[in-house]
Write a structure and sequence with these properties.
Layout (H helix, E strand, L loop, with lengths): L1 H8 L4 E3 L21 E4 L5 H9 L3 E4 L1
Parallel strand pairs: 1-2, 2-3
Length: 63
Amino acid sequence: MVKKAIVSAASESYLLSDASKYGRIAPFHALSIESFDYVISDNSLPYQVVEDLQLKGIEVLLA
């Protein structure tokens, strides 16, 4: 609940995660990916994931 409140109050929200985290099932779910304005990941993020995020209105930044 605290994370959701913080993201809701922010003017922009960023998710920083390496590519190995995408497509995995986590033991808990804190926020939906749609909660974020930007996703920052490494260059090994598959193009299909980048495209899916962009279709959801999320800007993807690869480092």
